[in-house]
Amino acid sequence: MDDLEGLDASGALGALVDDATLCTSELVTNSCVHAKGTGAVLLLTAEREAVRVTVYDEDRTPPALREGYDGESGRGLWIVDALTEGRWGTELPAPRLGLDGSEGKGVWFELGKGPSGEAACSSGAVEACRCAGQSCSA
Q1: What pLDDT, on the 0 to 100 scale, is given for residue 131?
Q2: Residue 104 domain-assigned (yes or no)
Q3: What is the rounded CA–CA span in Å between residue 57 and residue 73?
Q4: Which residues contact 55 (CB under 8 A, 6 or more apart)?
Q5: Which of 60, 42, 41, 49 lies closest to 15 in space, CA to CA?
Q6: 101 in Cβ contact with 56 (< 8 Å)
Q7: Residue (of 37, 27, 136, 47) closest to 96 by Cα position
Q8: Is residue 136 domain-resident?
Q9: Are 42 and 28 in contact (CB under 8 A)?
């Protein structure tokens, strides 16, 4: 998480660091706990007023918001959903990242505003996209 903390704390991204750190922690934890495979890769893209984080792993099973939770688990994606205002999703297939050569998925979120001042809704190989009422497709 040091990369996130290294973002310009005095600029527009500074306000996003805590939320980005928490959301990143949730996605990495989900990958470690639930995904089958040998590891995960994190991609951080920071722009002037926005940040996008994608966690890739080798399991093609997309995450889902669970109804209800217990004392130990089940809240992570709800936290990501709330902090990102629904701007998160899944990319299938994920690029081959050298983990074991297999394809998997990328789970991403965005925080901040794009160049137009509107919420950023990145393009790409997006299969499931929740973008605060925006239509997102590849």
Answers
A1: 35
A2: yes
A3: 20
A4: 24, 27, 28, 30, 31, 40, 41, 42, 43, 106, 107, 108
A5: 49
A6: no
A7: 37
A8: no
A9: yes
The CATH number for 53's domain is 3.30.565
How far is CA 22 from each of CA 15, 78, 106, rounded to the nearest angstrom? 13, 12, 17
Is 137 inside any structural domain? no
Report the domain count for the chain: 1
Ramachandran region, residue 105 (left: φ > 0; alpha: ψ -120 to 50; beta: rest): beta
CA distance 97 to 118: 31
pTM higher than 0.90: no
What does the pLDDT look like over 89-115, one tens digit per residue? 999 877 766 555 567 899 999 999 865
In a domain, 32, yes or no: yes
- Strands of the chain, DSSP E: 40-46, 50-57, 88-91, 105-112, 126-130
Domain hosting 19: range is: 2-130
Answer whether 92's CB lies under 8 Å from 59's CB. Answer: no
Phi, psi of 115 (to 5 degrees): -60, -30
What residue has token string 């920071």?
A: 46
